[in-house]
Request: fold
Amino acid sequence: MVDITDRKILSILQSNARVSHAEIGEKIGLSTSAVNRRIKILEQDGVISGYAAVLDGKKMGKGASVFVQVTLKTQRKPQLDEFERAVATTPEVVDCFLMTGEMDYLLRVVVQDAADYERVHHETLTQLPGVERVMSQFTIRRVFQKSGL
Reply:
């Protein structure tokens, strides 16, 4: 179970995963070894599932985000599994959610521009196993992004 001290550690790590264990300890009143021990437990328990750098899509040449609603021909488990395995190998798809409601999946796709998305749409998304319908919405701009819970 995650206690208040663990939550403080997690909050600090979410804002800067490169902060030293000593700095975390200073901020919350724990020794470096106690912080290290708690972080190891959080990692082992899967509370911390990894560390990542947050990149600027525009500076990486991927300035457009497209939300894509995907409906499959059937919702049987083998077909869902096949779709999920295939979409996971698509580099432009950065998020994939199994949904309730009219669509089966919601994807977030990052591309250079509309022409690049057209390529991904025709060459990849519509070719994924079991796809019946794809509906796309381009974002105008990101208002904010939170990396923490």
User: Anything to note?
Assistant: The mean pLDDT is 94. The chain has two domains: 4-44, 64-138. Residues 86 and 128 are 7 Å apart (CA to CA). The domain at 64-138 is CATH 3.30.70.920 (Alpha-Beta Plaits).
